[in-house]
Amino acid sequence: MSGVRVLFRPAGRSIVVRSGTSILDAARQAGVDLHAPCNGQGTCGRCRVLLADRGSVLACRTPVTEDLEVEIPRSAQGREVVVLLEAATPDAPADAREPSPLGDAPYGVAIDIGTTTVAAELIDLASGEVRARAGVANSQAAFGAEVTRRMEHVEDHGVADLAAAVRGDLQSLVHATCEQAGVDESEIGALSVAGNTVMTHLLHAADPTPIRTTPHTPAIPSPVPVRGAALELDRLPETSVHSVPWIGGWVGGDITAGIGASGMARDDRLTLLMDVGTNGEIVLGCGTWRLACAASAGPAFEGCGLRDGTAARPGAIDRVRVDRDGGVVISTIADAPPVGICGSGLISSIAAFFEAGWIDRAGRINPRHVEDLGGEPGLVLVRQSGGDRTIGIAQRDIDAALRAKAAMFAGVRMLARMVDIELNEIERLILSGGFGSVLDPADAVTLGMLPPVPRERMEFAGNTSLRGARDVLLYGESRREIDEISRSTTYVELVEQPGYFEEYTSALFLPHTDETIFPQRERRSVS
Known about the structure:
By secondary structure, the protein is of the alpha/beta class. The protein has helices at residues 23-30, 147-157, 160-181, 197-203, 253-262, 343-355, 395-418, 433-438, 441-447, 464-474, 476-488, 500-506; strands at 3-9, 13-18, 48-51, 55-58, 68-71, 107-113, 117-124, 130-137, 188-195, 226-227, 240-243, 271-275, 281-285, 290-294, 316-322, 328-332, 340-341, 371-372, 377-384, 389-394, 428-432, 458-462, 490-491. It has four domains: 3-76, Ubiquitin-like (UB roll) (Roll), CATH 3.10.20; 107-261, Nucleotidyltransferase, domain 5, CATH 3.30.420; 265-299 and 400-464 and 492-517, Nucleotidyltransferase, domain 5 (2-Layer Sandwich), CATH 3.30.420; 302-394, no CATH class.
């Protein structure tokens, strides 16, 4: 088959590909950032590009059969995201660990590989000082927003693309932090990396696809330390790379690191740790026992799959309220002009509309308030450009949010049932991760996503995965503790537990079919 040339604008890059290659695959080969959360399945509609003679087309569904010029609109370009670089100081037991740095070199880098973003800290191993921080969007997003989409890419094309993407992110972050601090990369002796089980597999170029099927077992044992050369880190060949061990197929080293960083493994208090996101990891327990599960909440809380969804970035709607006159009031990240709605904005809007009576307990929009959003029912958050464009939440967005919150809350209830614990016995609720750092607890309790724990028992811990990776660099006791957490925390597959689907179905209402579970739910006055 003959080759055809594709020119991408505004990037200005061109590439010759085989005739019949999709525009999306051509963009990937050219290194052009084209947003495709569904990994080319044709279901998300986000990879829409412009052709001079055909107008708007889906890049993943349009083959290139002749020389072509492709215009990528801003809406389809790679998303700018907010990277959570810092963790709050946890309300944990007193820390008496003695410093015992990893290796003899003066510096190390702690890294959190998230599905959406990758964050890094350059650490002075002698003093424990954080010398520099940096973060980037995870380059694997070009192959799908969700880990399941990325595993589909592995099934079809192998692991090389995704391994190269995450390894490139690691090296660019090491370079960026060293440049900030005026440190030579040769002075980096160790990397401590925490990520979910799939991300860790991909870093090590291991096939993660067995995790998708029962019994959801990782393809490899938790990785042992290796040199950078083994991971093709060309600029860090002699650097020792330590991956934090996972707990189970869907509960990864990021959660292991979070348990360590939060002090949960050294605490006698009954603690619930929740990392709210696509995977929805939940840990219940204390220093002597722990249960962990993943709730498979789906991508709605990451802003994916929504009519006007976006990542948490400048301009994303993150708070919504209904004023006394029935007007919708929004706020956006960085007070930038609104570009879409992120996960916290979705939760906030549903909570506000429920409290105002615009949505009923089943999540259905009151007919008096429903509006047409381009052919589907929904609620308008903001009108722009004289009403030509609206940003809103569709009925299907509300349904997706209810399914996500139901999965999270059913997971909490199942873990509590397994050890015969009532939710009001929880003494400490830790919300970790980027989403947990911006979540309004009143909104989350209104939806029935979080258990009705008093506000003073809640902690917003931020990026505990990064903090735990940092502790691995600095403390021998932390390294031993992390290994023990991985071994001793019991991994639970929710779908195999009797009663799980009944719990899930009961949680598909606002806040729940059993309202007695939420007797102290905070109700906000309409103001």
